[in-house]
Specification:
Pfam families: DUF1330
Number of domains: 1
Number of helices: 3
Oligomer: single chain
CATH topology: Alpha-Beta Plaits
InterPro entries: Dimeric_a/b-barrel, DUF1330
Distance between the termini: 7 Å
Domain DUF1330: 3-97
Length: 98
């Protein structure tokens, strides 16, 4: 069964400290859903073409369905409610290859 991945790119982070509550709650929600963080805060980025050298978060789940369910979970919805106003990110759930 193909794995599922959350891929988040943060084009601009003006005040990273404002993400602390979200990061804490999201981390708990991801762990509870069986997610594994593969790349996150502090990871190096070498961007090309239209890419932006900002924070990229990559989280792996055992299946695409598990990744979708984790995004819809009450715990992650609580985390999303803590994102600051005016915050911008590109978030995708993608299915991996076998």
């Amino acid at each position: 069964m193909p794995k599922g991945y959350w891929v988040s790119v943060y084009p601009t982070i003006e005040d990273p400290e404002r993400l602390d509550v979200y990061n804490e709650l999201a981390g708990l929600a991801v762990a509870a859903a069986g997610g594994r963080v593969l790349a996150s805060i502090g990871s190096r980025v070498d961007a090309h073409e239209a890419g932006i050298a900002e924070r990229v978060v990559l989280i792996e789940f055992d299946s695409f369905e598990q990744a979708v369910a984790a995004r819809a979970s009450a715990a992650y919805q609580e985390a999303l409610a803590e994102l600051p106003d005016g915050f911008e990110r590109d978030f995708r759930i993608v299915e991996g290859l076998d």
